Amino acid sequence: MLVDWFERAGKGHFTGEEALARWDEWAHKRPRDYQALINPGAVDTIRELPRRGVRVALASSSPMDSIEEVLDACGLSDAFEYVVSGEQFKESKPEPDIYLHALDLLGLPAVRCCCVEDSVPGITAGKRAGLTVIAKREERFGFSQDAADKIIDQLPELLELS
Q1: Burial class (CB within 10 angstroms; exposed 0-12, middle 13-18, buried 19+) of 114
Q2: Residue among 131, 140, 51, 74 nearest 98 (CA)
Q3: Is residue 136 exposed (0-12), middle (13-18) or buried (19+ Cβ within 10 Å)?
Q4: How far is Cα 76 from Cα 71, in angstroms, rounded to an integer?
Q5: How many angstroms separate the CA atoms of 83 and 102, rounded?
Q6: Are 85 and 102 in contact (CB under 8 A)?
Q7: How far apart (Å, rounded) are the C-alpha atoms in residues 17 and 6?
Q8: DSSP class per residue in 130-155
Q9: Residue 106 · residue 57 · CB < 8 Å
Q10: Which of 51, 58, 56, 41 is nearest to 113 (CA)?
Q11: SS3 of residue 78 by DSSP
């Protein structure tokens, strides 16, 4: 994904390792306040779902160390039964492998589960895995979320669906 992004941005062509090194160098100089960036109501919603009997796993294309950093900063390190990283697979989203693995870990069939996504690759991966896909509306980047089964504006809306 980074290789493609650098090319589209006109920054040149890099191997995966080179692109990751450039990204890491850039990101290291720019610490992020993840609590300020998290969607409103996300922490409370993620905490409430298991209380309502909803099993929750996280399947992110991000590297595991980044996932753990964000979860830690937002007080969510213990909020998910399983945390799965795209780096664990040969190909990540839009391939469904990450979701299929999460379903296997949970021991649940896709027809009893949903995923929450905001990107086209994520929506595609969820659909390919046989999940009901709920998209968190994202209008900043100009891509379509029409392939999702439902689009919500705020994460607490999930509680109305469960």
Answers
A1: middle
A2: 131
A3: buried
A4: 5
A5: 8
A6: no
A7: 13
A8: T-EEEEEP--SS----TTSSEEESSG
A9: yes
A10: 56
A11: coil
pTM of the model: 0.79
Half-sphere exposure of 97 (CA within 13 A, CB side): 11
Q: Running along the chain, 162 residues long, what does each successive block of 10 average in pLDDT? A: 83 88 79 74 96 97 92 95 95 95 98 96 97 94 93 96 74
Record the tokens describing residue 59, joined without a space.
């399947």
Helix (H) or strand (E) holding 83: strand 82-85
The first and second tokens of residue 17, run together, are 């390792």
**pLDDT the model gives residue 103:** 98
122: left (phi over 0), alpha (psi -120 to 50) or beta: alpha
Cα(18)–Cα(12) distance, rounded to whole angstroms? 11
